[in-house]
């Protein structure tokens, strides 16, 4: 029976978990589609055509949130949170030690007894005791009065569940696009065999020690030997690709069917020479 129960639980739990994960990623992808509309002007409805496309778009949000999670421990707020939680833990530890000390516990019980007697002598204490004895009798009144408010709270919770994931996808993808597409200085280099086996450090030169260089993939679309479009890769699905030209500001969404796609960018040697040049204000 136990084995049948476990098998039954797996048969229901695994598909349910997969479905919940797919829905969550699709909502993140919907938020990313809206981020593309905000930053690049492409209507969100044109960036996806199926739930699978939303899954593709969700990676922009996930990448950004993972990057923030990796750097969370370096922030000042995180350090203050660590100090605060350590202080709370220390206070609770001291309270627990004091509670296990007979002398301190006895004094605390005596102080609590005196406080209770003082409260019992306050005006209205008799009415409070009567209400405490009749608490169960007021249960129908409390339930009847609370039901309308509970319905409102449940409706808001349901709306929040469907809003928070797209919002998280929107904010994460927007930060990703600003950081790694718009703000990038160079296209990713086209690396030959030697460069792929021995990749160079983008920030190894002395002039780049205090300024992190950002590169982003650039693509070009070709059809019948003619260049159709070229730019920084923003996002893509199984049928379209969105490219951004940082010089002109032009953003295009192009179908990929019947076209070849190539990496576009400087060679690794040229990029390395550019990185070795000292930084100027120009």
From TrEMBL:
It comes from the Bacteria. Keywords: Membrane, Transmembrane, Transmembrane helix. This is Uncharacterized protein. The chain crosses the membrane at residues 6-30, 80-99, 141-165. The keyword Transmembrane applies.
